[in-house]
């Protein structure tokens, strides 16, 4: 009686199954990466982020400690909630300059369509010194 020839899967399963699993893991990693880029991009384009960064870059005290030009880091953390003309934001923005690095801590409130910064502080990482910035 003639023997049945093995199917393609039976002949190639040793490399096919790992390739499928790795392909799925790769697709998941790309998906998560795209979500992260979208979220960070949205936060970086927000008015509280841009305003706090501009105020920090214009501060002579911050420039004296970190140097100029200041560059913002990629990993912003915090949240922004907007509901019509009101809202609030709480952010941590990493920054660095030629002399060192720090974090901008922002607490912003939106009232009648305009953002205010009741708390805006730059913390120098090396010394732990905090520089309050009041716009």
Please characterize this protein's 3D structure.
The protein is α+β, with helices and mostly antiparallel strands. It folds into two domains: 8-45; 47-132, Nuclear Transport Factor 2, Chain: A (Roll), CATH 3.10.450. The protein is built from three helices and six strands; from the N terminus they run αααββββββ. It has helices spanning 8-44, 47-58, 60-66; strands spanning 71-72, 77-83, 86-97, 100-111, 114-124, 130-132. Strands 1, 2, 3, 4, 5 and 6 form a six-stranded antiparallel beta sheet that branches. A hairpin with a 2-residue loop joins β4 (100-111) and β5 (114-124). The protein starts with 7 loop residues before the first helix and ends with a strand. The model has no long low-confidence stretch (mean pLDDT 91).
Task: Describe this structure in a few short sentences.
With 135 residues, the chain is of the alpha+beta class. The chain has 2 domains: 38 residues; 86 residues, Roll (Nuclear Transport Factor 2, Chain: A), CATH 3.10.450.
Q: Kindly provide the radius of gyration, computed on alpha-carbon positions and rounded to a whole number of angstroms.
A: 25 Å
* CATH architecture grouping of the largest domain: Roll
Structural class: alpha+beta
Per the CATH scheme, the topology name of the largest domain is Nuclear Transport Factor 2, Chain: A
Proportion in helices: 40-55%
Largest sheet: 6 strands, antiparallel
Q: What ranges have pLDDT less than 50 throughout 5 or more consecutive residues? A: none
Which CATH class of the largest domain? Alpha Beta
Number of helices: 3
Order of helices and strands: HHHEEEEEE
Q: Mean of the pLDDT scores? A: 91
Shape: elongated
- Ends distance: 90 Å
